[in-house]
Amino acid sequence: MQGVLALTKICYVSGASEILVTAQGMDPFIRSPSSMSSNSNDFSSDPEFQSWLEKLSTTSTKPPASQFASAHQMGTSKMSTRPEDGVVDPKGKVWGTEDLYVSDASVFPSASGVNPMVTNMAISDWISRGIGKELKGEVSDEGLEERARL
User: Does the keyword Flavoprotein apply (predicted)?
Assistant: First the structure.
């Protein structure tokens, strides 16, 4: 049970708006708009979440009736035009590094709300082609051609 409780807290501090556990009798935790707008990810100051955690801690989560899953994480290494606004530049290069690139769904500006497979493949293809051109000396860091805004 301690692992399930820890995972729900991780979801909360990561900004989840809804947390669903597959324990019998447990409703999902749906975060109030006020706790989302306050930019506070301190779960200890959210009485609704604390109450939900208390109920969860007394609920049976015996296998195989329970599971915990998370999928399609996006936006953890946000692409940006300025270092202070994200982790990677518009070419996927990590700001302030040499030869370190990110080319997956983590460069999305935020979660898309839909399966990111096709968009992820397109971004990865675009970034990898840019890396190839840089290795061949065909492009420089200056004069990035703007094709789309993220």
Answer: yes
Active site residue 114: no
The answer to whether residues 60 and 23 touch, using CB atoms and an 8 Å cutoff, is: yes
Q: What is the pLDDT along the chain (150 residues), one digit of tens a residue?
A: 788 899 899 888 888 889 988 887 889 999 888 776 655 677 888 899 999 999 998 887 666 666 667 778 888 899 999 999 999 999 999 999 999 999 999 999 888 878 889 999 999 999 999 999 999 988 755 555 555 555
What pairing do the DSSP bridges indicate for beta strands 18-19 and 29-30?
A: antiparallel
Sequence ranges of the domains in the chain: 2-57, 72-150
Out of 55, 72, 78, 91, the active site residue is: 72
CB 77 within 8 A of CB 87: yes
SS3 at position 30:
strand
Q: What is the DSSP string of 21-36?
A: ---TTPPPEE--HHHH
**Bridge partners of residue 18, in order along the sequence:** 30
pTM: 0.54
Backbone angles phi, psi at 113, to 5 degrees: 85, -5
